[in-house]
Known about the structure:
Bound molecules: adenosine-3'-5'-diphosphate
Shape: globular
Largest sheet: 5 strands, parallel
Structural class: alpha/beta
Distance between the termini: 29 Å
Amino acid sequence: WxxxxxxxxGFWLSTFALRGSMLLHDHFKPxxxxxxxxxxxxxxxxxxxxxxxxxxxxxxxxxSDHPLSKMNPQELVFFLEGAIxxxxxxxxxDGLPSPRLLxxxxxxxxxxxxxxxxxxxxxxxxICRDPxxxxxxxxxxxxxxxxxxxxxxxxxxxxxxxCKGVSHYGPFWDHVLGxxxxxxxxxxxxxxxxxxxxxxQPSDCVRKVAEFLEVPFSPExxxxxxxxxxxxxCSFENMSNQEVNKNATRNSGRPISNSDFFRKGEVGDWVNxxxxxxxxxxxxxxxxxxxxxxxxxx
Length: 298
Ligand code: A3P
């Protein structure tokens, strides 16, 4: 159910990610104003891209005629390793005006020091999600991308490799902990969010991201309910119903339909797919992996 993955410095990467990471190390020049949306796949990248874009650019666009109504968030917050991979160089990202809004799935430890050093001012907004929901979202996504000529991927087979840590940019837990530790050590550099918290209290999360990015909402903006406008604009209901997210296809290494990034957008859908034994096994692995780290998914 996976493309060929390589074990590289503790993580499982496709040739696409591996090449992206190497090109990043060799050529990417971070700017102090760079804002990077970082995620393990299926944790809410699309959503966070939309939120960050609309927070940072809230003075540039009218909410009734917003770029997010016409473009998929990936056309506004650029997938770093994807852009570099397609170009074979950093010329595309080098040409973007500041502040650049970028995204990556790479683990923190695999990013170049020029990005993660405290001396570099670029900032990361990370979002993680309950691994049970991540796994189910990944499994659906992998089946969507699979050739119609092949049988669907068996849930049990996919579950087994996910639990062993073998998944794109996995092990999942190590990815999360890399950014979690970075957020503790460098809270001004890395903001750590949970999908479940954003779902529960989206307005609070929007304010938190804005403060972290040093563009807090003014009392006047609050009185105009700008936070709520952003929450509504980026909601699953609104975004999944945009024409561009229903019908367009894009190429990030291979052609993918925008609609594949909008499935249910809910917390706890795992309950419809995993047996109680599977859920317990995954929770147990999570508990062991997170023991002593001060982090949990609850
Ligand atoms: P589900 O498959 O559980 O529905 P990513 O963007 O990292 O690939 O993650 C995709 C997951 O985020 C999918 O989860 C998708 O439905 C969900 N998602 C996409 N847009 C969302 C939004 N605006 N709000 C909440 N969830 C969203």
